Amino acid sequence: MLSSSYDLLSLTPSTGTFALIGHLDCADTMTPNSMAVDRSGTAWVNYASGNLFKVSTKDASCEKTTYKKQGGFTRFGMAFASDAAGSDAETLFINGIGDSFVSSKGHGLFKVDQQTLKLEEIGDFSDSLKEQPAELTGRGDGKLFGFFTTKPHATLAEIDKATGATSNVKSLTGVSTGEAWAFSYWGGDFWFYTAALGAKASTVTRLATSGDGKISKVTTNADDIAKANTDGKFLIVGAGVSTCAPLEPPK
Questions:
Q1: Ramachandran region, residue 130 (left: φ > 0; alpha: ψ -120 to 50; beta: rest)
Q2: Cis peptide before 133 (omega within 30 of 0)
Q3: Residue 169 to residues 1, 126, 145, 166, 184: CA-CA distances in angstroms?
């Protein structure tokens, strides 16, 4: 997990415990915006400036990439997804987001050439999700999903990696993206990290994809971390899970 206070953290799903890995010291004057994690365990971090960094998930050390602003946006949601079920090959996908928090809109789905860091536009999302901002998460079975900032409730949808079209759309009753949001998939569940405007700490919500399929809030130590921080806040702005992560609940 990545916080607006430049901290990189891990989350133990079984206990809801966040643990500090390290403090980002990337060469950037703006705040981190989003994060994705590749199969080697490296976090790719987008800053609000438009810069893209590679960050170690072992010690939070930071390396700037050669990525330059493209597509008319600086902020984007991002995730790796396997090219096919069980494949070691993966692709980095992004959704460009408008630079104004007041009037932000989504710019559709792009993929990133990991050698040149050039964007290839794929297409916009479908129907009511067209031009909607989204955070992304991918899985080892090759699927890609979006966490969309619709109102009054956020929306979860599967994304076609070849066209950007959305399907299996689900309204997330009681979940609002607020001023800080992130998204991941782990162990058979979707995990949403959100913070309402003015909140001191992010809320973690889990959607089970098996069994009862309920949406439930997860008890975490987020409030304790917020109180310990100098700014009194703990807002999660990025979440990434490798495509090596389990697709089913651990036994």
A1: beta
A2: no
A3: 25, 10, 10, 7, 17
Q: Which two tokens stand for residue 228?
A: 């310990």
Residues forming beta bridges with residue 29, ordered by sequence position: none
Q: Do residues 8 and 61 lie in contact, with contact meaning Cβ atoms separated by under 8 Å? A: no
Would the CA dihedral through 164, 191, 104, 155 be positive or negative? positive
Whole-prediction pTM value? 0.95
CB-facing half-sphere around the CA of 105: CA atoms within 13 A: 10
The greatest distance separating any two alpha carbons of the chain, rounded to the nearest whole angstrom, comes to 45
pLDDT at 213: 80
Q: Average pLDDT of each block of 10 consecutive residues along the chain (251 residues)?
A: 96 95 95 96 96 97 96 94 94 87 76 96 96 96 96 96 97 93 94 96 93 88 96 96 89 72
Report CA-CA distances (Å) from 157 to 19, 126, 181, 223. 30, 10, 16, 29
